[in-house]
Amino acid sequence: MAESQLNVLIIGGGGREHAIAIAVSKSNRLGKLYCAPGNAGTAAIATNLEVDTSDHEAVIASVKANQIDFTIVGPEAPLCAGIVDRFNDEGLCAFGPTQAAARLEGDKAFAKNLMTQALVPTAEARTFDNLDRAKEYIATRDTPQVVKAAGLAAGKGVIVCEEPFEALLAVEEIMGKGKFGDAGKTVIVEERLKGPEISLLALIDDRTMYVLETAQDYKRLSDNDEGPNTGGMGSVSPSPHATDELLVQVQRDIIIPTLDGLRREGAVYRGVLYVGLMLTAAGPKVLEFNCRFGDPETQAVLPRLKSDLLELLHACATGRLEETEIEWDQRSAVCVVMASGGYPSKYSIGKPIEGLNSAFSDTVAVYHAGTQSHPPVTRTSGGRVLSVTALGENASAAQSKAYEAIGKIKFDGATYRSDIAANM
Ligand code: AMP
Ligand code: GLY
Question: Is the pLDDT of residue 151 over 80?
Answer without folding.
Answer: yes
